[in-house]
Write a structure and sequence with these properties.
The complex is a heterodimer of chains A (about 220) and B (about 400). With about 220 residues, chain A is of the alpha+beta class. Helix content of chain A is about 25%, strand content about 20%. In chain A, a hairpin with a 5-residue loop joins strand 4 (about 70-75) and strand 5 (about 80). With about 400 residues, chain B is mostly helical. Chain B has two domains: about 1-195 and about 365-398, no CATH class; about 200-360, no CATH class. Chain B has helices spanning about 1-25, 30-35, 40-50, 65-90, 95-120, 130, 140-160, 165-195, 200-205, 210-235, 240-265, 270-280, 285-305, 310-335, 365-390, and strands spanning about 340, 345-350. A two-stranded antiparallel ribbon of chain B has the order 1-2. In chain B, helix 4 packs antiparallel against helix 5, helix 4 (about 65-90) packs across helix 10 (about 210-235) and helix 7 (about 140-160) packs antiparallel against helix 8 (about 165-195). The chains are: A alpha+beta (about 220), B mainly alpha (about 400). The interface between A and B is large, with 55 and 58 residues.
Chain lengths: ~220, ~400
């Protein structure tokens, strides 16, 4: 998924759509997706950066490794899924996730997270997620990174992007598009330690992680 | 025995509270709002569901007091068993005579730790550990370990109490070596459990994690052994009690020195953002309290070799409290959000792309606190029952 966060207006429509579509538990802390507001001020000019986020569906996901029951697993295509029926709530995956993308769904007594609307949309052949469909400013773009002709890959070929916490080595699949035509926005919203990539540069990283993990991909339980 | 009943009552209250909160409590949802539009009660309930305590598990601190208590009980229990096994291997007679009691205490602590972790997990789904196992996960590796480890310790206790002395002597050495091997594997697996959480740099960058667990557990175990010796033998055999306390005092002192040396250097190797939180951030008071209680006070009290049992008891209690605090810092500190160090802004409690989060402790639910207190009742209860039938606290030649 690509995130053109420069366009985010923090309307939270995506959060509401996600909760509604996926029946996510009520609660301010129980969110599959969220928008982070981080304030900063460089040389006296205040700025609020908005970073929409969710599970990064890492290609080399540590949450899958630590799960003792296989409740966290890779679905075909590399989407990281959870099976609530087999989750024992050891919370190892919550600790292993660098993005704090997981939470305990108290109604099922199991860990929950973003599934890219797999069971409500993707499985029915749709190629949009609820958050993407509802976004009024078209921040999110979901697609198939293995398909060079997909709208997502075409976008990533056109624009530079970065990923979060790259140093964790998880190869995340949320691509944050570098703000266009606004140096001030880019300067204030991108950490100085963040690497900026082109698709050509990032593709080999994806391929390497895919080669390592794709044997673990399996049919959705 | 009344103390045990009170502590077990805490455990029972905790279990009921956890089951009720986890499986029976209902909270309002959108359907309720649809069925009773405009209802003040539903509105209040929905407000509670959205802005209330946020459920049993906090997103910011998935591993909490349960894990602290589990770690403490397991490590101290294992530490006692390992120390006794080592003492048997090098033929320390005084510990050999009291080995059955020590092993029972260690085993009781392990069972109390397992009780704590059972309550932390979704008990109704635990069978999936067997039906859908992922063998490479740290947590699953603990399972077969316990399946071998606990029967082995019980067998060791049986050998110590057994009248089949000739046979017991024959198998004693292989059993001892096997148990030592399993002990070392256990510390390795426990470290792996934390080390696999690649996002938590406090845990992954802690140098020689199995060694740290082993050394800190030796200190805590020795503290518990001093207290146990005093409580069990002070009235039965005063001179042997003093000799035993003196011996364990030495073990404690050496362990404290090694732990002090480790802690003095470990933070040089840890991710500087996590080290910042622990050493100079919100955890600093807990960290220095841990060092004072677990290392400084026992070192001062035990170094001079006072004859008074009172001094040794104070040192032991200080160690027990201090090392528990150390485990809390380790678990909660690993959960803590690393600070960012942005140019021109300095250290902050969040990174560029994340919301502000506190790194302070969260108050655990009452059920969790009751289970932790109740786990003490389980230790004493198991020990008292075994002792009543097998007299494990008697000093015996073998």
């Amino acid at each position: 998924m690509a995130l053109d966060y420069q366009s985010c207006i923090d309307c939270k429509a995506c959060e509401v759509a996600c909760k509604e579509e996926n029946g996510v538990q009520l609660g301010a802390d129980k969110q599959r997706i969220w928008v982070t507001q981080s304030e900063k001020s460089i040389f006296g000019e205040p700025f609020v950066a908005l970073h929409p986020s969710q599970c990064n569906h890492c290609l080399d996901a540590p949450c899958v490794d630590v799960c003792p029951t296989g409740s966290s697993y890779f679905a075909l295509g590399g989407i990281v899924m959870t099976n609530k029926d087999t989750c024992i709530v050891c919370k190892g995956c919550m600790e292993a996730c660098p993005y704090d993308a997981r939470f305990v769904d108290d109604t099922h007594v199991a860990v929950d997270k973003c599934t890219f609307c797999y069971d409500t949309r993707i499985v029915n052949g749709e190629m949009t997620t609820a958050c993407q469909a509802t976004c009024p400013t078209k921040v999110r773009l979901f697609g198939d990174i293995d398909d060079e002709e997909s709208e997502l890959v075409q976008m990533l070929k056109k624009r530079k992007f970065y990923v979060l916490k790259e140093n964790e080595g998880t190869v995340p699949k949320l691509f944050y598009l570098l703000p266009e035509n606004d140096d001030f926005y880019a300067m204030n919203s991108v950490d100085e330690n963040t690497n900026i990539y082109t698709w050509k540069e990032f593709k080999p990283i994806i391929e390497k992680a895919k080669a390592k993990r794709s044997p673990q991909w399996k049919v959705v339980q | 025995m009344y103390v045990v009943y009170v502590l077990l009552a805490f455990a029972l209250f905790g279990v009921i509270e956890v089951f009720y909160e986890r499986y029976f409590i209902l909270s309002a949802n959108a359907l309720d709002a649809g069925l009773a539009p405009g209802s003040r009660e539903v509105a209040e309930s929905m407000k509670e569901a959205i802005f209330g305590s946020g459920g049993e598990v906090k997103r910011e601190a998935p591993w909490s007091l349960y894990i602290v208590n589990y770690m403490y009980m397991i490590y101290v229990g294992s530490g006692i068993i390992l120390l006794v096994a080592l003492a048997e291997l090098v033929d320390i007679k005084l510990i050999k005579k009291t080995a059955a009691g020590f092993l029972t205490l260690g085993l009781a602590m392990i069972i109390a730790g397992l009780f704590t972790i059972m309550m932390d997990l979704n008990i109704l789904h635990l069978h999936w550990m067997f039906l859908s196992p992922r063998y490479t996960s740290g947590m699953w590796l603990m399972l077969p370990l316990y399946l071998v480890y606990i029967p082995l310790v019980i067998f060791e206790i049986y050998l110590l109490l057994s009248h089949h002395e000739h046979w017991a002597k024959k198998v004693a050495l292989p059993i001892l070596i096997l148990s030592l091997l399993i002990e070392f594997v256990e510390f390795y697996v426990q470290a792996k459990l934390f080390d696999m959480n690649t996002a938590r740099h406090l845990w992954t960058t802690y140098p020689l994690l199995p060694l740290y667990f082993m050394v800190s557990s030796f200190v805590a175990s020795a503290g518990v052994m001093v207290l146990y010796t005093y409580l069990i033998y002070r009235n039965t055999d005063k001179s042997k009690c003093e000799d035993l306390m003196h011996l364990i005092q030495k073990i404690t002192l050496y362990s404290v020195i090694v732990l002090g040396a480790y802690e003095a250097t470990a933070y040089l190797f840890i991710d500087k953002k996590w080290a910042e939180i622990i050493l100079f951030g919100d955890f600093k008071f807990y960290f220095y309290a841990y060092l004072i209680l677990a290392v400084a006070i026992p070192f001062v009290l035990l170094f001079k070799d006072y004859t008074s049992s009172f001094v040794k008891i104070i040192a032991a209690i200080s160690i027990i409290v201090g090392t528990y605090l150390g485990r809390m810092i380790f678990v909660y500190g690993g959960n803590a959000y690393p600070m960012s160090d942005r140019f021109g802004v300095g250290f902050e409690k969040y990174s560029e792309y994340e919301p502000v989060k506190d790194v302070i402790f969260f108050m655990p639910p009452w059920g969790e606190i009751a289970i932790v207190i109740g786990s003490l009742g389980i230790i004493i209860g198991i020990y008292r029952i075994v002792d009543a039938y097998l007299s494990v606290s008697l000093m015996r030649e073998h």
